Amino acid sequence: MDGPVLCTGSCVFGALWRQAVSLARRVDFAASRVLFPLRVLVDARTPMNLAVLAPVWGQLLADSRLDVRFTGPDRADIQHAFGTAGLVARVVSRQAARLQRWDLYMNADPWDPATLLRCRKRVNFFHGVAGKYDLECPIGLPFDLHIYDRIAFPNAGRMQRYVAAGLARPERAVLVGFPKLDALVNTRVQPSDIAATLGLDPTTPTAIYAPTFSPQSSLQHHGEAIVRWLLEAGLNAIVKLHDRSLDPDPRYSGGCDWRARFATLAENRRFLFADSGDSTDYLLASDLMVTDHSTIGFEFCALDRPLIVFDAPELLVAARVDAGRVQLLRSAADVIDRIGQLPGAVDRALREPAARRAERLAAVNEVFHDPGRASDRALALCYEMLECPIATRSALAAVEG
Q1: Could you give all domains of the chain from N- to C-terminal order, each with its CATH number?
Q2: Dihedral, 4, 8, 13, 15 alpha carbons, nearest 10
Q3: Is the pTM of this model over 0.85?
Q4: pLDDT digits over 330-346, tens only?
């Protein structure tokens, strides 16, 4: 008899404790809403994460009713990104954020969320659509999406798979799209005009080399040769590496200091090493792209400009890339597997830029929900979580429509 009684007492105490904690939290947030501005915490694990969320936090910053802060790992790259964006005064350490009150927390990377003890609502945005690391086959993934009140999905297929697998509850899954893509879809500009603002020769075509990170990526085996050939062919060449390729951890960079390796080309006035985590201007400045397999390749398709995929079969295995996503990107590209094929591919790209236009459009529409209006939906979602009237007409239209 003693065992069941003790168990019942323990269960009752646990239930009472949870109710007391819940009540304390409600009182905490209710009092705070009256006395202080609503507080938003943007968590960026890498500079790219900061860029993915920029269309959202950029508008939230303009709302005087909100106190928007930023956090991330204690790493030089993300701290530099905060500084470049003029956000240093708004940065809080993860340790300090742990005990502070937050009305809304958002991130673009579910692998390493901040631990927050006084957070009312949490929203996750996906930072990629390339289908790497089993993200299109959501079984046994090493993160918990149930901690989020809303999960903003970039496309319907991924949302349906995650709901079906039980990783996202239907009422918490929201089809938003990819806010970062809106600037590419909605901007009408000639590549040469943006190239000139970046210091490149506006009278010559610009090619961007944008491989993914991995010791098995095209960067490791062919990257320097690709860029040197582009320059020797008389093109402007932009190198936009993935954040992780600049990480000294050999798991990501292969143990190479790629910034130093490409610095040998810096004297060429037609060469640009992209320092910003936001690829938008670099993509807008480019007439064609060379990549292997990455979200940035799908983003470039939104510009309806020629894409060249440099085959890296070991990458597809190592990064556990979804076969459907591999085929989708390659359907929109000229696929090559050696440097000797690069001249022909570049020549075709410049002579026939409209080739594979239908395939590019199909790829964009499959991986990005309703391109061009995702930022409005994302912003509307944030204000819904804050239980606060929306500050912009465009976001209001997204909610009503």
Answers
A1: 35-178+371-400 (3.40.50.2000), 188-367 (3.40.50.2000)
A2: 140
A3: yes
A4: 999 999 999 999 999 99
